[in-house]
Amino acid sequence: MKNLILSALLLSSSVAFAQKEKTLPITYNTQAVFALADDGKTKEGMYAVRNTKDDGAIVQGFYKNGERTGTWYFFDNDKKLALRYNYDSKKILYYDKKQLDNVEVKISSGNDEAKKNASAPLPLCSVDYMASLVLNKVPQILNAPGGEIEVVIDARVGADGKAKYTVAYKTDKGDYEKQAIKLDNDSDKFLVSWIPAAYKGQALDAEFIMVSKYNNDTNSTRRTKWYN
Predict the structure, then answer these.
(1) How confident is the model at residue 185 (pLDDT cuts 50, 70, 90)?
(2) Hey, what long-range contacts does 189-193 have (CB within 8 A, 24 or more apart)?
(3) Which residue among 28, 31, 48, 95 is the one 20 to 30 A from 73 at the CA level?
């Protein structure tokens, strides 16, 4: 079933990109490839984020009049479907709960009952990909000698769905450096949007904390490895 979905998406992408295609690098090994309307500016048709090493899909969906529409697909580092989301109905159609295995959530607002029972904030992409976007902003991690670096990514997600990011990483001296991160506001790049934490229909402020090891060895595939 998954192969059929991917085949259909790839076939439709070849048709969409026959219009006007634009390619834009995002991180060291990912790029956005998308179709434009006749004005050469408005995204119209297929949009994809792909791994430049193997052309594997990371994000796949459609734009209509410059807005995300229909069902979008998001894949993790292992090319497994992590999330399927419909932007028209604003509903999650599928979510791999393993995405949250090594994530700690702290609800920051609401009463004790809400803090105990609220849903977790969720990024509309795989956790792997969100981590790569954030870590791509930290040269100290990307340019460190080969090997694994311990990192902690903290996304503070407001009730409005907007997130502020910080990264703490272990230096060769054994201590931790902490750095605030601001993701690009370039509208052509795939910007991460969030579904905020909620309880009984009320959106809440929350923290989404990820602990991982980042492999920055340029002789192998750079990736974020979550603790088991």
Answers:
(1) low
(2) 189/24, 189/26, 189/32, 190/26, 190/32, 190/47, 190/49, 190/59, 190/125, 192/123, 192/124, 192/125, 192/130, 192/133, 192/163, 193/123, 193/124, 193/161
(3) 28
